[in-house]
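Quick note —
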Amino acid sequence: MRILADPHVSYTAKTAVILGNFDGFHRAHKTLAKACVAYAKQEGLTPAAFCFVNPPDKGEMLTDDDQKARLMKESGIELLFTYDFALLKELEPKEFVEKILLDTLQAKAVFCGFNYRFGKGRSAGAEELKDLLKDRAQLFVLPPVRDERGEVISSSKIRALLAAGNKKEAEKLLGHSTSQKL
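Predicted structure written out below.
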């Protein structure tokens, strides 16, 4: 897997890209990656992921950066774009889509979860992303992935389980072990 960290250098191949923080790269994230990789193979695109390093207010990460990259690679992601949040936090949604997704990442397909937020102050979501990508890239918004009890799998739920000392249940939702200490 190639890891690219300079938002000012454009990648040359066309990509299908998953968007998110991917804290923990849990089962819902893996579902997103699986859909992206399948579509990328079908359309001749490079499967990629975009996430920030040093995101604000995320607490302790459920997986460290090396484990996250390994899990993404195992899911079939070939490129990982990791940009420092501080460098891009002031971008308006339109700027993020045009400068990062379309120009830098060369995205032809974008995959995100139902609750994905982006742009300055997390001001935009999937509907705005759909409008901004219109006629330039496909957008796929995946519905929530649920556990065996029908509850939405999320990093915050996993953190709550860890805080309660239930590492076994947390790792079940992650789909792998966590680097976070109890």
